[in-house]
Each structure stands twice: as structure tokens, then as C-alpha cells.
């Protein structure tokens, strides 16, 4: 089985730290060399101790689930002879609290808009089946307890 990794680094810098007034900005490094500036969410830790311009873990979680779903959707569409021209998802994650007060990402709503073209036109049932099968195959969706819903739309643009 494959393993996947990331290197996460943070430095205190000049901050005192013990007064809990320190920057939560940090860096994610991936094996391909990409570096992503990250931070706590400004919804959790107010600026300037978080950096709203950076990716926060909750956003990354939503993006990872959306990306995994999309990659499976595209694969399954191609295998089914359906040509996809574009796929755009404005995914959202909603926080909730357990009875003990701990927060979690309870629901992730994927809202993809898919544009198809080519000789084969899907119907509503075919698109729904693609989303269902993409969800069933997504490694990340199979790894989490958040509810993941898909509220997508699609267009068919003929044999362009």
C-alpha cells in the first residue's frame, strides 16, 4: 500500500508564546516540492495570530474531499464514454459541536457543476450514478465520519 506524507513546520520567532499570543502561521511542504502557507482558521484564532490569507486545516479538509470526489468522477465518466469539458466545485464544510462541546466538521457539501460534450449525452440518472460511485470510491470519503452530500448541476453542450 502507498504511504502519503507532508512536512509541517512552524517557528516561534520573536513571539513570547507562553502568553498564548503567537502566530499560528506555518508551512506545509509536499514531496513534489510544493509549499503551501497555512494557518489556523481566523474563525478559531483571531488575526493577527492567524493569517486569513493562508490555507487553514478545515479548508484543506473540504478541498481534499472535493478533489478526491472530482478525480473519481472524471475517471468514471471517462470509463463510461462521457466526455467532461469542465468541473468546478464550490464545496463548503459546516462545523458543529458534539454534546461535550468539541467542534468538528460535521457536513461537507459538494456543489460541482459539470459540463459534458461529445457524442454521448448523460441523463440525470447517469450523472447521479457517477456522483454516487465517485463518493463510494473516494479514499478520503471512506476515511472520515463527516456527512458528505453532493448537490451538483450539469450541462451538455453537444458534440463540440
Automatic annotation (TrEMBL):
Q: Which InterPro entries match?
A: KH_dom-like_a/b (IPR015946), OsmC/Ohr_fam (IPR003718), OsmC/Ohrsf (IPR036102), OsmC_Ohr_Peroxiredoxin (IPR052707)
Record-given protein name = OsmC family protein
Species in which this protein is naturally found: Bosea eneae
Q: Which PANTHER family match?
A: OSMC_OHR FAMILY PROTEIN, OSMOTICALLY INDUCIBLE FAMILY PROTEIN
Amino acid at each position: 500500500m502507498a504511504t502519503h506524507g507532508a512536512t509541517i513546520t512552524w517557528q516561534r520567532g520573536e513571539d513570547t508564546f507562553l502568553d498564548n499570543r503567537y502566530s499560528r502561521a506555518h508551512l506545509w511542504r509536499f514531496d513534489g516540492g510544493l509549499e503551501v502557507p497555512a494557518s489556523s482558521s481566523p474563525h478559531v484564532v483571531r488575526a493577527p495570530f492567524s493569517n486569513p490569507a493562508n490555507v487553514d486545516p478545515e479548508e484543506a479538509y473540504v478541498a481534499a474531499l472535493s478533489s478526491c470526489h472530482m478525480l473519481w468522477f472524471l475517471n468514471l465518466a471517462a470509463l463510461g464514454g462521457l466526455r467532461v469539458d469542465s468541473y468546478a466545485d464550490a464545496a463548503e464544510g459546516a462545523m458543529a459541536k458534539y454534546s461535550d462541546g468539541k467542534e468538528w466538521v460535521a457536513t461537507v457539501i459538494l456543489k460541482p457543476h459539470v459540463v459534458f460534450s461529445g457524442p454521448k449525452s448523460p441523463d440525470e440518472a447517469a450523472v447521479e450514478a457517477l456522483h454516487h460511485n465517485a463518493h463510494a470510491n473516494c479514499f478520503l470519503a471512506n476515511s472520515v465520519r463527516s456527512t458528505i452530500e453532493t448537490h451538483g448541476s450539469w450541462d451538455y453542450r453537444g458534440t463540440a
